[in-house]
Amino acid sequence: MEPFVSCRCSRRWTLVSLGAALVPLQALAQVQQQPIRRDMQVLVDRYAGLLVRWAENPVLVKAAQKSSDEGGIPGMTPERWAALKPGAPDVQRTLTSEAGRYVDKLDNLQVNKVVLRDRHGNVVAANTKVVLYNVRHRPVFQTAIRGLPWQQAYVQKDVTTGVDSVQIAAPVRNAAGDVIGVIHASVTDGQ
Predict the structure, then answer these.
(1) What distance, in Å, lies between the first and last C-alpha atoms of the chain?
(2) Which residues are CB-neighbours of 135 under 8 A, at least 6 positions away?
(3) Who's near 183: CB < 8 A, 6+ residues apart?
(4) What is the set of domains in the chain, with CATH numbers?
(5) Are the C-beta atoms of 15 and 137 separated by less than 8 Å?
(6) What's the rounded Cα separation, in Å, for the pair 63 and 68?
(7) Percent over 90 (pLDDT), the chain
(8) CA atoms within 13 A on the CB side of 175
(9) What is the pTM of this model?
(10) Alpha carbons within 13 A on the beta-carbon side of 148
(11) Pairing of strands 123-126, 111-118
(12) Residue 165 has pLDDT above 60, yes or no
């Protein structure tokens, strides 16, 4: 297995427009960080290997390529995504597409979120409505889109699920070996 790159997020404030209001998202990146216990790291390593294999699934490769070529969901912006309810048609397409159904099967007691992103960082498929439509600026995406698996260096609450987790990511490649997207997941010890 390839070595994983880990990093720590900076403590800068990020602002996202939610309709007319600006909301500081420091809480998204800077919730309480905890060290990864040895038994948790064993679990993370196991799922990191699985994530690399899941990234090779033809359904996910096809979906990432299509979204990359089309630039994501037509007309979608991070602000519009944030305002959508989980039952909105655009959200439902990410959950019920063939790729969405595949990643939904991957979630279990130890993996509480699985997300497929295109090469631009846009959500393509997920097992839940994720908080962020685009993550191109976040470490979970930046390392994997360069072709390297990635692991968060600590445990913290997942911004979507609220569960203490370690984030992992792997590149999604087409048949030519080009990186066309990223699959990422939240691993928890299920306690």
Answers:
(1) 27
(2) 117, 121, 141
(3) 51, 54, 55, 60, 103, 114, 115, 116, 117, 144, 169, 170, 172
(4) 15-187 (3.30.450.20)
(5) no
(6) 8
(7) 79
(8) 3
(9) 0.83
(10) 12
(11) antiparallel
(12) yes
Angle of CA points 191, 95, 40, to nearest 5°? 25
User: What's the number of CA atoms in the CB half-sphere (13 Å) around residue 137?
Assistant: 12
With beta carbons less than 8 A apart as the criterion, state whether 135 and 150 touch. no
As a whole number, mean pLDDT of residues 164-169 equals: 96
Where do runs of H (alpha helix) occur along the chain?
Answer: 26-29, 38-54, 58-70, 78-83, 89-96, 98-106, 139-142
Which is nearest to 126 in space by CA: 159, 151, 158, 102? 102
Q: How far apart are CA 84 and CA 88, in angstroms?
A: 6
Over range 175-190, report the average pLDDT.
94
Distance CA 69, CA 17 (A): 26
| Closest residue by Cα to residue 123 from 52, 55, 50, 184 | 184
CA distances from 161 to 16, 68, 71, 89, 100 (A): 19, 26, 26, 21, 17
